[in-house]
Every structure is written in C-alpha cells, then in structure tokens.
Amino acid sequence: xxxxxxxxxxxxxxxxSTAMRNLVLQYFLTNxxxxxxxxxxxxFHYSDRTTLxxxxxxxxxxxxxxxxxxxxxxxxxxxxxxHCTSENHIDIHPHFYCEKCKTTMCLRKLSIPAMNIGxxxxxxxTEFIVKGICEKCNSIA
Length: 141
Ligand SMILES: [Zn+2]
Ligand SMILES: [Zn+2]
Ligand SMILES: [Zn+2]
Description:
The protein is α+β, with helices and mostly antiparallel strands. It has 5 helices and 6 strands, in the order ααβααβββββα. α1 packs across α2 (19-30). The model has no long low-confidence stretch (mean pLDDT 93). Helices cover 34% and strands 16% of the residues. The protein has one domain (3-140): Winged helix-like DNA-binding domain superfamily/Winged helix DNA-binding domain (Arc Repressor Mutant, subunit A). A 3-stranded antiparallel beta sheet has the order 1-3-2. A 3-stranded mixed beta sheet has the order 5-4-6, with no helix packed on it. β2 and β3 form a beta hairpin. Residues 63, 66, 80-81, 84, 89, 91 line the site of one zinc ion.
C-alpha cells in the first residue's frame, strides 16, 4: 500500500496524516491479526511509548480501529470497516483467541447473534470471544 492510499484511509476518518500515524496504519494493514500496544512498541522501538499510545487512542476515537478484550490482560486493536464511525460501529463481529500462539483475530464474516436481555438493560458493547486453536497452529500439530 502506498503513501497516497494510507493518507486516503486516514482522511476518510478525519485523521490528519503524520509520519507516525502513517507508519502505524501501515503496520495494521500488513498484520492480519489484532495488535497490542506491546507489539507496536517492539515494531517501533525507536519511537516513544506515549506517541504510540496517543496514535492508538486517536485511531480508536475516530473509528479507524476497534479495541478487543480477548480475556488476556492486554487490550488489542484491529482495523475497522471504512464506514465505521465512533458512534456507530457497523463491524460488530466475534473474535477468535488462539490459546497456543496467543493471537487474536477478527471473524469479520460472522455476526454476533442478537440477544434479548430485557428492556431494563442498556447495552453499550458486546464482546464475543471464541477460544481455541487457530488454523495455523492446528496445521502444525
Ligand atoms: Zn468498527
Ligand atoms: Zn495459533
Ligand atoms: Zn475485530
């Protein structure tokens, strides 16, 4: 993906392009799995933690990425649909957590079944995590 395409994706979400933001988005695009702040710190060891953290927060606020709580103690992030907004994520999907390689991935083709939990509840978010062994680890065994 070239710089122009990266900048277009940022612009789509009203995010100003900076060198750091371009690089972080590029990283998300090349990784086909959810990314933890720790992964970014390793990949961008030359830049400071606060900048990385702020980049992630901006991306999340602008609905370029969504956060995933997979039951491990680390919050992970993955790219959103182009039409997601911070008020309305249209890409609500289950996530898969591999207990072997600790990878978390989006199951974008699936949707979370509607649950009727009653009128007196206000739902803000729904997490749906499927745990087990991923394709890759399963083929090694
Ligand atoms: Zn989204
Ligand atoms: Zn695995
Ligand atoms: Zn996801």
